[in-house]
Amino acid sequence: MMQGHIEGGAAHRALPKRYRVVPRGSGWAVAIDNASTRPMPDRSAAERLAARLQAEADRLDRDQHRRSQ
């Protein structure tokens, strides 16, 4: 197995992921790419969950970007 590291970090930085609230079945779901949660009857609950997930994803992205510099 080869060992080593890439000089200068990643060649292309991935675009940030964006969580969104979408209508699903009998309620609202939080979606990203082609995945989504199960429907929730309350849109405001789905919006709160999407905001929490987005904040966590942004924090992880920021931390990863700092480590690669």
Q: What class would the helix/strand composition place it in?
A: alpha+beta
Number of strands: 3
Query: Counting H and I runs of at least 4 residues, what is the number of helices?
Result: 1
Biggest sheet overview: 3 strands, antiparallel
Outline, from the CA principal axes?
Answer: elongated
Q: Please identify the oligomeric state.
A: single chain
The radius of gyration is 17 Å
Describe the structure.
The protein is of the alpha+beta class. Helices cover 38% and strands 19% of the residues. It has a 3-stranded antiparallel β-sheet. A hairpin with a 2-residue loop joins β1 (20-24) and β2 (27-32). The longest helix is centred in the C-terminal third of the chain and has 26 residues, at 43-68. It is elongated and about 50 Å long.
Draw up the topology in text.
Layout: E1 20-24, E2 27-32, E3 35-36, H1 43-68
Antiparallel strand pairs: 1-2, 2-3
Defining key terms:
single chain; 69 residues; alpha+beta; three-stranded antiparallel β-sheet; 1 helix; 38% helix; elongated
Short overview:
The chain has 69 residues and is of the alpha+beta class. The chain is built from one helix and three strands; from the N terminus they run E-E-E-H. The longest helix has 26 residues.
